[in-house]
Protein: Amidohydrolase
Amino acid sequence: MNSAVPVTPEPFSTDEARRVRAIWSELDLPGIVDVHTHFMPRPVMDKVWAYFDSVGPLVGREWPITYRADEDVRVDTLREFGVRAYSSLVYPHKPNMAEWLNGWAHDFAAGHDDCLHTATFYPEESAHTYVSRAIQAGTQVFKCHIQVGDFSPTDSLLDGVWAQIADSQVPVIIHCGSGPAPGTFTGPEPIRELLHRFPSLPLIVAHMGMPEYTAFLDLAFEYPNVHLDTTMAFTDFAEEDAPFPADYLPRLADAGEKILFGSDFPNIPYGYTHALEAIIRLDLGADWLRDVFYRNGSRLFGIG
Structure:
C-alpha cells in the first residue's frame, strides 16, 4: 500500500480486542501499559510508513504495517485492547525538527489523557533550551533515536540535555541497539560511556537492545535507573534474525522489575496479540508477566 494514498478508516478487530483483554484479565491486571507506541504528525507518519514499505532489501523481507489506519482509529484500537497508557514517540532525523515535533506531541497528549506526554531532542545548540521547556511543560517520557538521527549519544551538544534529564528523572526511551541494521553510533559501548558520565540517567533501552541483548541487559543490572522495553523482541519476526539467547533467560527472569512492555504499534508486521503471546511463551511466570505488562510501567510513570 502506498502511504501517499489516504488511509481508509477501518474498525479494529473485535475478536483481537477480546483476545488481548483475555490475556491481561487472566493475570488480574487492570489493563496494559505500552511504553513504545508511535503517534506522529501525518506527514511524518506517512514518511515512516513509506520507509517500512521499502525496507525489504535492507532487512531481507517485507515489513507490512498491520495497523495502518487513521489516527483516531489507532487510538480507539489501543483503548479497545485495554491499553491504559501509551506514548506518542516522535524523533527527528535532522536539526531544527525536534522542537516542532515536541509542540505536536504536547498538543496530542493534551487531547488524549491516556497518552504519556512525549518529547524528543537532537544534538543542536537549541536542544538544552527546548528540553528545559519540555520538562517544565510536564513531559513524562523522551524519545531518542540514535540510529535514525545518526548521532552519538555522547555528542557534546547533548551534555546539557543529559544533565537536565538526570536531574528531572524523566525517562528516555532510547533506540541504541544495532537492529534492524547497524548505525554509525549504535551498540552498547556509546551507552556505557554515556552512563559512565551520567550514571543516574533514567534510560529505557528500546527493543531490549536488539541484537546486543546481553550487553544491554547487563547494563540494566549495573545501573539502577536503566530499563529495557520488549518492543518486537521475542516475536517470530525478531527471532528469525536476532534470537534472544536461551542461556540468558534466567538473567531475564531476574530482571523482572527492569522490563517494560512495548509494542511499536502501529508499525508492526504482525498482530498485537502476538507481541503479548511471544512474551508469555518465555514461561517466566505469571508474576513476571504482571510486572512487564503493567506494574513496572505503572510504577515508573505514576499510572493508577
Notes: Residues 24 and 272 are 13 Å apart (CA to CA). The chain has 14 helices and nine strands. The longest strand covers residues 83-87.
